Amino acid sequence: MTLKHGLVASAAIVALAWPQMAAADPASDARIQALEAQLADLAAQVAALKQQQTGDVETLSAQVTDLKTSTGASLDALRTDATSTQASIPNGKPTIATSDGRFSATLHGVMQLDTAKYFQDRSLPASVAARDLNSGVNFRRARLGVDGKLYGAFDYNLLLDFGGSGAEDTGRVQELWIQYSAFKPWRFRVGAFAPPLGLEDAASTNGALFAERPAAADVARNLAGGDTRLGAGVIGNGDHWFASAVVTSNLVSSFNSGATAFNAATFDEQLGYALRIAGTPLHGYDWLVHVGANAGVVAQPADLGPTAAARYAIQLRERPELRVDGTRLVDTGAIDAAGARALGLEFAAQKKNLLLQAEYFDIKIDRRHPAAGVQDPRFSGWYVEGGWVLTGEARKYNLTTAAFDAPAVDKPFDPLKNQWGAWELAARYSTLDLNDHADSAVVANRVRGGEQRIWTAGLNWFPNPATKFMLDVQDVSVKRRNAAGAQLGQDYRSVNLRSQFAF
């Protein structure tokens, strides 16, 4: 029972007992006066309690009103902050984004300028056409684009490229895709992009060990994948695994019968598949072992039309891992094909600042209606390369691509602080064999695409995360014969300096 209730009950008891007390003892005036005083005091206390209760309620009501007002203002402020944009330049990339991260746009660009000198024998046989490779300067890549997020769950990327091989391009769509990323760990992508087809292919060209990919890796990636390819697929990864499956389709490529986003239309487009699985089953604090497998499949070659010499042609050809001169020294020629596939195996091992990686590729083309005695040609290639970061930094293993990126730069270039950036030594041996039954008695069964072997030694300097300089020395040997058996290949050396700025 509360104090208020007790006082009210006491007053009621006194009121009921008053008549009886007065009749029983009329002489007890003193006692009556005392009771009257007590009753008056109780009434005053009840009135005071009522007034206090009313004040408490009013105070509480006022406090609730103030809380509602302040909470509403806070919520309005949070909503404003969540939708407001903020500008920043993390790692040199200009970025604008909402505070909640649901919308963002990041500008990025790449400048790769190659300056090369070719050293060729001046007494080459008359059958050699590429007797004077073009020494000079070329923007290999000149890219500008934007990527970011939409509504939190969607990623996008737009990238234009004005660089080229041997000469700069007028500009083309390098990448243009959108991706749904809410179903972790899977990402669903559609548009123009290069599907991951191998360890070297998945790595960013900004952080590569050398100026160009190994020849075998480049041929294999372009069969059903490659730059500017149109496709749709799913990509996923965890801490120690990676998997992707992409369907590719579109137009005929200038490299082989691959699909790209900017070539002239064909009668029917190519249909292909690009698959890859990889992971790091063995790993420790400062070391890992990477293994993987990949496959590029051309299920239906592009239809070049009834006037083409080979209506469903697949042509494999490659430049010698340097693009200042765009000449391709190994070339199978157009092969009328029903389909093709390239299978690849991946391996890499990293211990702190030391990296070793290798890949092997087996390529097979299925001829369309081959004549008697004519077999389906098979080609192969492989490479092994390694890098040693002299300043101690380790190359970063990118979980989202299952490939290696550039090393961190612990001490960006600043001579006043005795800081000189990151320095790396690199070496590679690569081989590509595009010959098949080269000496067959059946002329139509011969494929004399040539065999190319390249030794490369390099020195890479990273003054800071956005800047890179690469000095590469190549020793190239190409053995290739024409239909008459005359030598088309040659041995030569080259030196290339790449200046790169990427953000």
Write the layout of secondary structure elements.
Elements: H1 3-24, H2 29-83, E1 85-88, E2 95-98, E3 104-120, E4 136-150, E5 154-161, E6 172-180, E7 186-192, H3 199-202, H4 215-224, E8 230-237, E9 241-250, E10 270-283, E11 287-300, E12 313-314, E13 317-318, E14 330-331, E15 335-351, E16 354-367, E17 378-389, E18 395-398, E19 403-407, E20 422-436, E21 447-464, E22 467-479, E23 491-502
Antiparallel strand pairs: 1-2, 2-3, 3-4, 3-23, 4-5, 5-6, 6-7, 7-8, 8-9, 9-10, 10-11, 11-15, 12-15, 13-14, 15-16, 16-17, 17-20, 18-19, 20-21, 21-22, 22-23
Helix pairs in contact: 1-2
Relevant terms:
503 residues; Porin; 2 domains; two-stranded antiparallel sheet
Overview of the structural elements:
- The structure is a single chain.
- This protein is α+β, with helices and mostly antiparallel strands and 503 residues long.
- The protein has two domains: 3-79; 109-138 and 154-502, Beta Barrel (Porin).
- Helix content is 18%, strand content 45%.
- It contains four helices and 23 strands.
- It has helices at 3-24, 29-83, 199-202, 215-224; strands at residues 85-88, 95-98, 104-120, 136-150, 154-161, 172-180, 186-192, 230-237, 241-250, 270-283, 287-300, 313-314, 317-318, 330-331, 335-351, 354-367, 378-389, 395-398, 403-407, 422-436, 447-464, 467-479, 491-502.
- It has a 16-stranded antiparallel beta barrel. The chain has a two-stranded antiparallel sheet with strand order 13-14.
- The longest helix has 55 residues, at 29-83.
- The protein is elongated, with a radius of gyration of 39 Å.
- The relative contact order is 0.11.
